[in-house]
Design a protein that fits this description.
heterodimer; A: alpha/beta; Rossmann fold; 2 domains; seven-stranded mixed beta sheet; five-stranded mixed beta sheet; 12 helices; globular; B: alpha/beta; two-stranded antiparallel ribbon; 7 strands
């Protein structure tokens, strides 16, 4: 099985999808000739031609708007927004159009599009290259929201997303593109070539949307995480020496509630972590669901560890980022409660 | 020389407000037949002046004159007249139905009937319109059943959209009519995307985008022009300038551009202005632009100069912001009367036959209405099920919606 970075895996997913279905088209800013600022589309234009992989004007609204029209025609566009931080001009096209076309036309028109975008911080990107806007999409009826945490899942989830009959927001934690990052920013970087989840099957492989996976089994406390924070949670459990179960949600909408409740009912404790800001974040939804479905199994209040409710700062990146130390504190607090 | 102005913000104002004498003297109307008809493969740079003129075919006497005349036969024109009369009668009945409480909302076309009715005739089966809320002529002239339109307006049990959409936000894929959003401008860039897809698939079907004068201020409009220009998309981009965006006169969106068509010049698109109340001119220009798109020559921007005679919607009262008699003063007249007079002049129509046709058209609308009302109206009779509210959000209902449907007890 070839070892791949997350970038390789994402590119491979698009390559496989374009090879299997000529209705799959890929476009965005710097996506065509150059192959994307993160290289996720490198080689696709050369292989499939500029009708199927091309550069666009700098207009996120335009990118998503034409994708909606193409989907109405019968294509399956997989478009790139250069950074999740730039998606807001396209928000109306996503929320009022892509997400609702199936519903409002009673199925006459559908919108099988994928909107890929690098998300999250940890690269000194400042406030305009670090945001995690997932909750702005999980709040929208009609969308699916996916956040992979490793190359294996990235490929399988992206192929599933492209084949899905509905619009999918595909958030790629950019700090994970080249290796698993556990939040210990002062330690040497591990590449995916040294990680088992860098093993990515060749050809067509899928990971179903809506299914979480247990990354670490444990009995003391459940950590609910996705994207970069999966690796931070694993490190925090090891550092704190706590027998935590780490659930990688993978898909936020639709959410694998069964996996969450099974784990929390077993452990009786829960810590929810995400990099995005806290107030009205996706963690609030998770905590509520745990409370609604597991209340009588809980031994302690559910804790949240998130980014602070400030813009993502530059110099203070590691004061902002909810690293293993903060997750560890929450674990200890929940265990002592 | 430009006017130097200091002190306070410059906010454009219409010539006249309620209580004043309607005045359209600033609307320059060229003589019918006076605007050239360039070949469809013309270099857009050579016809930039067309963005500031108005293509007209029917003159004051009702004659069809000039290089844009002659695109339709007598039979086609008679059918076109019937389409416009049907749309007008349909509007009147549905407006009344709203007042009778049979539905929540309605939007009529009075004065603008020629634009969508004539445009529809220039399109082929398989082409796709991305309309706004005032192009129902695309459906009427495409023989979409009036009963289905009314079922949608009534949100009744036979509503093809299952009660999910505001009245008149139709969707009719098989009739080349994309689902109306209700959010303004969004469909304009989608039309370009549909056209790009057609080009990617080496298909010869084309798309048409629609937008109002007010909504050209939305970013979607500008994105659409960029993408249409860059990729030479096979699309016709239509701006219906009916002078009023609810209460806001067209000068607020137009700014210093002179005309809306002129927006196309910076994008290198052919930009034409046409008399929107002249059925023959609308068809001739639409045909020209459709042919260009289908031949692979790219997009055309068209501004239809017309006037919204009625209120914006049943929730609007225009007497609060414009003179009541303004529509009578509109210099381009009434599209139905102009086509009627032309057909009389051609010797294929008479006043008597017109009166008779009015009665027949009304009968057709009333019988469709009776048929639709058998399926219910908004507050009476059959209605879509509450259970159905949860269907179709996704292709497959996810677990959280199944739980909510159970919770709702439907």
């Amino acid at each position: 099985m070839p070892r791949m970075t997350m970038i390789d895996a994402i590119r491979d997913a698009m390559d496989v999808s374009m090879g299997r279905d000529e209705n799959v088209v890929v476009f965005g800013e710097d996506v065509g000739y150059f192959g994307g600022v993160f290289r996720c589309t490198a080689g696709l234009q050369q292989k499939y031609g500029s009708s199927r992989c091309f550069d666009t004007p700098i207009s996120e609204l335009g990118i998503v708007g034409v994708a909606v029209g193409m989907a109405a025609y019968g294509l399956r566009p997989c478009v790139e927004i250069q950074f999740a931080d730039y998606v807001y001009p396209a928000y109306d096209q996503i929320v009022s159009e892509a997400a609702r076309i199936r519903y409002r036309s009673a199925g006459q028109f559908t919108c099988p599009i994928v909107i890929r975008m690098p998300t999250g911080g940890g690269i000194f990107g400042g406030q305009t290259h670090s945001q995690s806007p997932e909750a702005l999409f999980t709040h929208v009826s009609g969308l699916k929201v996916v956040v992979p945490s490793n190359p294996q899942d990235a490929k399988g989830l992206l192929i599933s997303a492209i084949e899905d009959p509905d619009p999918v927001i595909f958030l790629e934690p950019k700090r994970l593109y080249n290796g698993p990052f556990d939040g210990h920013h002062d330690r040497p970087v591990t590449p995916w070539s040294k990680h088992d989840l860098g093993d990515v099957a060749a050809d067509h492989v899928t990971v179903p949307l809506g299914k979480a996976v247990t990354r670490r089994e444990g009995s003391a406390v459940t950590i609910l995480a996705y994207g970069t924070m999966v690796h931070v949670a694993l490190a925090a459990a090891e550092d704190a020496g706590i027998d935590a179960e780490v659930i990688d949600l993978r898909t936020l909408l639709p959410l694998d509630l069964d996996a969450i409740t099974a784990s929390v009912k077993k452990t009786g404790r829960c810590v929810v972590v995400h990099e995005a800001t806290m107030t009205s974040g996706f963690g609030a939804e998770l905590v509520t669901l745990v409370q609604e479905h597991c209340f009588y199994h809980l031994e302690a209040p559910v804790a949240r560890v998130t980014g602070w409710d400030t813009p993502y700062p530059h110099a203070q990146e590691w004061d902002y980022f909810p690293g293993p130390a903060r997750v560890g504190e929450a674990l200890r607090a929940v265990m002592e409660a | 020389m430009a006017e130097i102005r200091k002190g306070g913000l410059f906010v454009p104002e219409p010539e006249v407000r309620p209580g004043g004498q309607p005045d359209f003297s600033q609307v320059k109307i060229p003589r019918a037949g006076s605007v050239e008809r360039p070949p469809v493969d013309v270099d857009p740079r050579d016809i930039r002046d067309m963005a500031f003129s108005i293509i007209r075919v029917l003159n004051r006497d009702g004659e069809a004159v000039g290089p844009w005349a002659g695109t339709l036969t007598d039979e086609e024109l008679l059918e076109g007249l019937k389409h416009m009369m049907t749309l007008r009668a349909f509007d009147a009945r549905m407006q009344m139905a709203q007042r009778q409480g049979k539905t929540s909302f309605y939007m009529q076309h009075m004065g603008e009937e020629a634009v969508s009715c004539a445009f529809r005739r220039a399109m082929e089966p398989g082409d796709m319109n991305f309309p706004t809320y005032r192009q129902a002529g695309l459906l009427i002239a495409g023989d979409y059943p009036m009963v289905d339109m009314m079922n949608q307006i009534y949100s009744n049990e036979a509503d093809p959209l299952k009660g999910r959409q505001l009245p008149i936000m139709y969707s009719a894929r098989d009739h080349g009519f994309f689902s109306i959003s209700g959010n303004l401008g969004t469909q304009f860039i989608q039309a370009v995307g549909w056209a790009m897809a057609s080009a990617i698939k080496r298909d010869d079907r084309i798309a048409a985008g629609w937008i109002g004068d007010g909504s050209t201020a939305e970013s979607d409009f500008h994105a659409a022009l960029v993408f249409a220009s860059t990729y030479r998309a096979p699309v016709v981009l239509n701006i219906v300038n009916n002078q009023w965006a609810i209460s806001t006169f067209q000068g607020i969106a137009r700014g210093g551009a002179g005309t809306f068509a002129a927006r196309g010049l910076g994008f290198g698109l052919p930009a034409l202005r046409v008399d929107g109340n002249d059925y023959l001119a609308v068809h001739a220009v639409a045909k020209w632009a459709v042919e260009r798109a289908r031949m692979g020559l790219g997009a055309t921007l068209i501004e239809y100069v017309t006037y919204r005679v009625g209120a914006h919607s049943t929730s609007d009262d225009p007497s609060a912001y414009r003179p009541k008699t303004e529509s009578d003063a509109w210099p381009l007249g009434d599209p139905v009367i102009r086509l009627k007079n032309h057909l009389i002049l051609r010797g294929v129509w008479t006043d008597d036959r017109h009166r008779q046709a009015e009665a027949e058209v009304l009968d057709g609308v009333i019988s469709a209405q009776k048929e639709a009302e058998k399926n219910g109206t908004l507050h009476a009779g059959g209605r879509p099920s509450a259970r159905d509210m949860f269907e179709g959000v996704y292709a497959e209902m996810p677990p959280h919606l199944r739980r909510q449907r159970q919770q709702a007890g439907v």
